[in-house]
Design a protein that fits this description.
With about 120 residues, this protein is mostly helical. The protein contains four helices and four strands, in the order H-H-E-H-E-E-E-H.
Length: about 120
């Protein structure tokens, strides 16, 4: 579970920088790791499984179960697209990259599937 985002020192001192799960575990609630995930593509899931769960996190989604994305490009079931363009600073600590957004819009515009079937990370 991702930690809370705390911008206030007072809130951090009050313990609000800890997630609900962290606080429950500290209070003695028994934790149970769910060992099979179904949301991520297996290639994406392999990193957190290795890095954070000692290889114990398995996937219930197999690459052959994923439909191939039909587009004007050969994307397969998943694609990483590098866009070499500078980021600019948005509000607060946010960063934005107009060139990346334009690239994503262009690639999604070429897909031959329902937009709800597309995930962008």
């Amino acid at each position: 579970q991702l930690p809370a985002t705390i911008l206030s020192r007072e809130a951090d001192r009050a313990g609000l920088g800890k997630s609900l799960l962290e606080r429950a575990l500290e209070l003695g609630v028994d934790g149970h790791m769910l060992s099979i995930q179904y949301r991520m593509h297996p290639i994406i899931a392999s990193f957190p499984s290795w890095r954070f769960y000692g290889g114990q996190l398995q996937t219930g989604v197999h690459p052959e179960d994923r439909a191939t994305v039909e587009a004007g490009y050969d994307l397969g079931t998943m694609a990483f697209v590098h866009v070499s363009a500078p980021e600019s600073v948005g509000r607060g600590h946010s960063k934005l990259n107009h060139a990346e957004a334009a690239c994503v819009k262009h690639v999604i515009g070429t897909l031959r599937c329902a937009r709800r079937e597309v995930g962008v990370i």
